[in-house]
Amino acid sequence: MNPAVSSYDVASIMGGLYGDGIIGLTGAFSAEWIARLREDIDSLFEEAKRQPGGALERGPSRYYVEVHPERIRGFVDLATHPWITAVCEAVLGQDYKIVEIGFDVPGPGAMNQPWHRDFPAPEATLNGRRLNSLAFNLTTVDVEEDMGPFEIALGTQWDDIAASGDPMFPARELYSRYETRKQRKMPKIGDISARSALTIHRGTANLSDTSRPVLVLGVDAPDARNSEKHDLQVTTEYYEGLPVDVRKHLTCRVVQQLQPIIQAHTIEGLLMGEAA
Length: 276
Fold this sequence. Notes:
- 25% of the residues lie in helices and 20% in strands.
- The chain has nine helices and twelve strands.
- The protein is globular, with a radius of gyration of 18 Å.
């Protein structure tokens, strides 16, 4: 094992993700690295908005865009970062798979989202009490209170909300639980977080005049099926140039020419948003 990976404590990683449902690492990337990432995101966002279905609405002034790994210049740095590798191996096992890369853009005027999880809780979590997927986030800005910070209701990745009638959106009578458990995240440039996408969370209202783009990396255990919602593609040339340790962790199509991503992970319940 890479010594840099083994330097991270497995018990702390698992305790955080099985407990609160979210952990973080400050200063994982340099400001210069994040500046390049922001350049890529800004360019890809403008491109996606011109392509039908390229930018999915996740509420007023809020978008999600899936991208091709090779369009992100720092993808290999991301996929091989020792902390990300350590977290994936600790929670998902040695055979984890990267299934998604994209970004959220909550722009000025974005409203509070309803409390939600990103997909229905699988049997492995509801009954097996095991997490089989993770989402990593990297902010491209120093988050301020008026920029629509991410809020997460700690420990709710284990909640069974089936009685609410929607496997992703809890009933409003449960909101008091999330309000009492919520924690507002204020990451700075260079920070990474890892969370279970099942932990109940929401984006809050962006009252500023500044967008808050954040990169998203989705990773599965071998038994998870989130890859079915995504269409990770790499060209043959790019794939052959990747380190072996990156290739073995990618669930992707290898193509001669990149094709537009037909995004399947729509979340209808987020389209309206809520008042701030």
